[in-house]
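quick q for whoever's on today - can somebody do inverse folding on this one?? i tried earlier but teh output was garbage lol. tokens:
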């Protein structure tokens, strides 16, 4: 599943193609993905202008001039793809075609479930082969009281995620630190890959109880988490299976993994003679060095 860096990369890719632009035609090609689409979604999107494109945790939020927000979750295999019109004059032609964009793009493919034809001729497609993604429309004014956002913890790249908050959030936690970091109520947007990488950078074992960590070690995780996420965003995220950027390109951060997916490989910590181990925690693989991570 795409994690925060992948979702942020997609948001940044969509921004120039969507913000300030109007959706000329919205084509919702099935009744549901993970959950049913909201009633009248195609009609509610058609004609709307996108005012702002935000990210909250692993959700992309598009604020519309209609007073509604389009929520997008990529799920396991979802992709947001951008396609320019097929000819140079298409942008002008699109304005005069009364919504007929079929000549500007190839026919949608099997797993193209939501197609947004923008007024300038650009096509935005939500493609999801496994259909674990989701979309919703809700009144922008309700903010983070939306059921999918209401319980989320602070953003790890935001100001509210700091040492004092993190120490208080982990105090008395009897769960492993790996599980605590994956708890979206404690900190939002983190997933398996980047938690493994941040724990390696701080020398903390994923097996350690969160409540047993010293304040100093907890504090060291804050900049490590920020750093690994920022580096991954700059690399366009990590492509392991289905993830692609909006232009179809792969992310590249997987080439920088220190522990994730490297079971049996030597640890990259200087002067460490250990190898990377793999254990399963709550059904997910944790990769770490049991020599230098304590």
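ok took a stab at it. sequence:
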């Amino acid at each position: 599943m795409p994690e925060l860096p992948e979702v942020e990369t997609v948001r940044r890719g969509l921004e120039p193609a969507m913000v300030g632009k109007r959706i000329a035609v919205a084509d919702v090609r099935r009744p549901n993905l993970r959950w049913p689409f909201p009633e009248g979604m195609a009609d509610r999107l058609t004609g709307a202008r996108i005012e702002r494109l935000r990210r909250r945790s692993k959700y992309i939020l598009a604020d519309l001039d209609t007073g509604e927000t389009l929520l997008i979750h990529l799920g396991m295999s979802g992709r947001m793809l951008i396609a320019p019109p097929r000819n140079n004059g298409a942008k002008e032609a699109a304005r005069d075609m009364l919504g007929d964009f079929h000549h500007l793009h190839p026919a949608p493919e099997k797993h193209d479930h939501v197609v947004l034809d923008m007024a300038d001729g650009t096509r935005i497609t939500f493609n999801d082969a496994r259909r674990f993604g989701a979309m919703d429309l809700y009144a922008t004014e309700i903010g983070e009281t939306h059921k999918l956002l209401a319980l989320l913890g602070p953003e790890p790249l935001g100001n509210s995620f700091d040492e004092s908050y993190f120490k208080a959030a982990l105090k008395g936690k009897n769960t492993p630190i790996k599980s605590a970091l994956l708890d979206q109520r404690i900190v939002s947007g983190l997933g398996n890959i980047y938690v493994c990488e941040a724990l390696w950078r701080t020398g903390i074992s994923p097996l350690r109880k969160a409540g047993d960590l010293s304040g100093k070690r907890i504090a060291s995780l804050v900049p490590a988490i920020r750093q690994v996420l920022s580096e991954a965003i700059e690399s366009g995220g990590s492509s392991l299976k289905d993830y692609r950027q909006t232009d179809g390109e792969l992310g590249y951060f997987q080439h920088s993994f220190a522990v994730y997916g490297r079971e049996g490989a030597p640890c990259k910590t200087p002067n460490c003679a250990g190898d990377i181990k793999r254990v399963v925690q709550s059904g997910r693989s944790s990769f770490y060095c049991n020599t230098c991570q304590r």
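fwiw The first strand starts at residue 23 and ends at 28. also Helices lie at 4-18, 41-45, 90-95, 163-170, 177-182, 192-202, 215-234. so keep that in mind when u check it
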